[in-house]
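Figure S4 source data
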Amino acid sequence: MKAAAASKAAAATAEVAASAAKDAAKRAANAAKRAVELAADAREATYIADAAKNAAKKATAAADKAAAEARTSTTYHDKVLKKAIIKAREDKKLSKFQLAQMINERGQYIEDYESGKVRLNPKVIQKLEKALGMKLQLNKK
């Protein structure tokens, strides 16, 4: 009987140990799942961070490009002023070179301005107004 009781006790102990082992295995499996999820979250976070960096670089590049275009592009005022100068020059039957001589500038300067390669500064506009006998500057709002 002692042997049977010892056997039952050993079986009970084995069951408890097996149950504890199953619980430990479940906890280990859950821990492994969480580790995989965390790793996936970390990869996703890295991906999102990289995407944000790339978006910031693109936005900066776009802003730089827009700023460069704004510095070099012809504004509405420049277009209106250019048309007024061309019309006044043609009405007086002056060539670009003749007009340039009248304002003491190179002939190429008028050519470059009328083609949009350069922008006029206020002093040149004043010289053109005097040479063409008309007001060229628009009212600023």
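Figure S5 source data
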Amino acid sequence: MNVIVGSGGLRQRSGGHSLGRVTAGQNRLTSTVAMPGCPHEEDHPGAGHRRYRSGSPGADDLVAGVPPPFNVRVKCKATDPDGRRIVTRYGDSAVGWNHFSHRHNIKKCSIINAAVSDKVDRHNKKTKEMEYWGHALHEGKNVQFVVKVQYSRSTRDEQRSAPYGETIGVVTAYCKNQPKNRCPNWMNG
């Protein structure tokens, strides 16, 4: 049995029981919009950029030299004790689920939800960045993990933004004091 907890309480996970409600968007629609002021707009004038409201890009949608778009579809949802709705977006290779599920080996929404459903452990009100901490226990091993959240419409570098009226949500999650901040496989069991 694995036990995954936020920084303030215990929740058990055993068998097929999850720690929180997990929902994911089913919509795969995309839209194309012009992005005035793009730093490399002169490379492809009039073409506009593809901005994905939801769904994954196809190979024919990608422009050479332009990084894949930030996927705003929601993978996980949780609400913290202060009533903030914290989402985990699919994102891209640097931010969101697609980043930390590969780089940091967190592949279950229940891990994110366990930390987020507890109190905020670090909050920078100026930058609207928050950290939620949790612990995973298994056979006498205790692994601390961190979930970092951007509770504003765009990332701090303003390179990625969520739909109007929504927040970026989880930027990254990782295990502390582990090689390359990768979580052990047993956490995803």
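Helices lie at 97-103, 109-116. The radius of gyration is 18 Å.
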